[in-house]
Amino acid sequence: MSEILLFDTINAQRAIRFLKSDPIPGDVLNQILSAALRAPSGGNSQPWAFVVVRSPETKQQLAVWYKEFWDNVYSKRADRRDSPVSRSAEHLVHHFAEAPVIVIPCIRGGKGSERDVMTTGASIYPAVQNLMLAAVGLGVGSVITTFLQNHEEKVKDLLGIPDNYQTACAVPLGYPSGVETFGGSKRRPLDEVVHWDCW
Ligand SMILES: Cc1cc2nc3c(=O)[nH]c(=O)nc-3n(C[C@H](O)[C@H](O)[C@H](O)COP(=O)(O)O)c2cc1C
Predict the structure, then answer these.
(1) Ligand 1: which of 85, 87, 167 to mutate, judged by most atoms within 8 Å of the beta carbon?
(2) Which of 6, 7, 78, 115 is the most buried (most CB within 10 A)?
(3) pLDDT value at position 1?
(4) Where do the H-state alpha helices sit in the chain?
(5) Mean pLDDT by 10 residues, the chain (199 residues)
(6) Distance, CA 191 to ligand 1 centroid (Å)?
(7) Ligand 1 center to 3 CA (angstroms)
(8) What confidence score (pLDDT) does residue 74 get?
(9) How close is the Cα of 55 to the center of ligand 1, in Å?
(10) Residue minimizing CA distance to atom 20 of ligand 1
C-alpha cells in the first residue's frame, strides 16, 4: 500500500452509525478480521478472539440490551447535550440490529487478573483500530461502542464466550447508507495535545 493511501484511510476513518443492512461478503470480512490480527499485543500473546455476529436473532437480542443502556443510563445523563454525535448515536440505538455484522472483540484475562485495565486494553484496542481502518479501506463503515458493557455477563452467555475472556466493545459493521460519509472528523489541534520533550 502506498503512503498516500494509508494516510487517506487514516483521515477517512470516523464513526459511521447510519449503515445499510446489505450483507458484507465473506472475503471482505476475512480481510477486515485479518487486519485486526496484525496488531501488537503484550509479548505477542495475541490474547484476542472476535465473535462475528450475523444471526438476526442474536443481533436483535444485543440490540435490546444496547437500547436498554441508552434508555436507562445514557439518555438520562445530566451532561447530555443535543449534538450531531448524540443524534447519530441515538440513530444507532434504534437500528443496531440492522447492521449486517456486529463484531465483539474479546480479550483473555483482564478482570481479576494481575494486569491493570489499561495494560489489558492495550492488547486489544490496537486490533480494534486495525479492524476499523481496514473496514474503511474496503468501504465498510464502523463505530466502536461500549453500551453493551453494562450487560457483559448476559452478552457472554448469549455468545458462549468463555469465563476467562472479557468483551472489549462491540463494533457494528456495514456499508454507509449515505447519511454519514468517511472523513471530516473533528479533532483538537496538534499543538494543543502534543508536548515536545516534556508537558
Ligand atoms: C471508548 C469508546 C466508547 C464509545 N462508545 C460508543 C457507544 O457506546 N455508542 C456510540 O454510538 N459511539 C461510541 N463511541 C464512538 C465515539 O462517539 C466516536 O468515536 C467519537 O464521537 C468520534 O467520532 P468521529 O470519529 O466520527 O469523529 C465510542 C468511542 C470510544 C473510543
Answers:
(1) 85
(2) 115
(3) 52
(4) 3-12, 26-36, 56-72, 84-95, 117-121, 125-137, 152-159, 190-193
(5) 81 98 98 98 97 98 97 84 90 98 94 79 97 97 97 97 97 97 96 97
(6) 23
(7) 27
(8) 82
(9) 24
(10) 15
CA torsion 55→58→63→64, rounded to 10°? Answer: 150
Nearest protein Cα to ligand 1, atom 25: 14
CATH architecture of 18-177: 3-Layer(aba) Sandwich (3.40)
The residue whose CA has the least distance to atom 30 of ligand 1 is 144
Measured between alpha carbons, how far is 26 from 101 in angstroms, rounded to an integer? 11
Q: What is the pLDDT of residue 175?
A: 98
Helix axes 84-95, 56-72, angle to 10 degrees: 140
- Span from the CA of 70 to the centroid of ligand 1 (angstroms): 14
What is the per-residue pLDDT for 9?
A: 96
What 148-152 contacts at long range (C-beta under 8 Å, 24+ apart), as own/partner pairs, is 148/62, 148/65, 148/66, 148/69, 148/104, 150/65, 150/68, 150/69, 150/73, 151/65, 151/68, 151/69
- Cα of 197 vs centre of ligand 1, distance in Å, is 30
Protein residue with least CA distance to atom 21, ligand 1: 85
